[in-house]
Amino acid sequence: MKSSITCVATILLLVGCLPAQTGRQTAPTFELAFNRFYDHAEIGQILQRMQATWPAFLSLDVIGTSVGGREIWVMTVNNPNTGAETEKAAIYIDANIHGNEVQGAEVCLYTLWYLMENYGKLERITTLIDERVFYIVPTVNPDGRDHWFHAANTSSSSRTGIAPVDSDRDGVADEDPPNDLDGDGSITQMRKRVTKDATHKTNPDDPRFMVRCKPGEAGEFIMLGSEGLDDDGDGRVNEDGVGGYDMNRSNPFDWQPEYVQFGAGPYPLYWPETRSVAEFLFARPNIAALQSYHNAGGMMLRGPGAESVPEYPRADLAVYDELGKKGERQLPFYRYLIIHKDLYTVHGGFVNLGAEGLGIISFTNELWASPQAFNTKDRQPNDREDFNDLVMMGSFLTDWKPYDHPEYGPIEIGGWNMWSSRVPPSFMLEELCHRNMAFTLLHAESMPKPEWGPSTIKAISPGLFQVRVTLKNPKLIPTRTALAAQKKIGLPDFVQISVPGTAKVVAAGIVRGAWPHESVDPIENELDRIALESGLPSRGDVTLEWIILGDGPYDVLYLSEKGGRLTATLGL
Amino acid sequence: MRFMSILAIALALVSTAQAQADFEKLYRDPQAVRARLLELGLGAMAQSVVVGVTDEGHEIIALEIGRPHDQAAAPVPDDAAGLVRRDWGRKPALLVVAGLEGHRLVGTEVLLRLAENLLALDAAGLDQRLAGRRIYLVPCANPNAAIRNLHGRPHREMIGNGRLQDLDRDGRRGAGEATEDLDGDGMILSMRVVDPKGDLVADAEDPRTLRTADPKKNERGRYLVHPESTDGDGDGRYGEEPGDGVRIDRNFPHGFREHDQASGRYATSEPESRALLDYILARPEIEAVLVYGGHDTFVKLPEAAKDEGDRRSRKPAMKLHPDDKAHYEAVTKLRQEEILPRIEGVEDEAGSLHAWAYYQFGRLGLAANLFQARAPAKAGPKDDDADQAAKLQDPVVAEMEAAWTTGFAEWTAFDHAQLGRVELGGWRPLVRTNPQEASSLVLLASQEEQFLFKILDQFAVVEVEDPVVKVLAPGLFEVRLTVRNTGGLPTALAQGLRNRQADPVLVRVDIARDAILQGDPLPRIDNLPARIGEERFRWVLRAKGGTRLAIDVAPPRRHALRKEITLP
Question: Which of A145, A195, A388, A450 counts the most CB atoms within 10 A of its CB?
Answer without folding.
Answer: A145
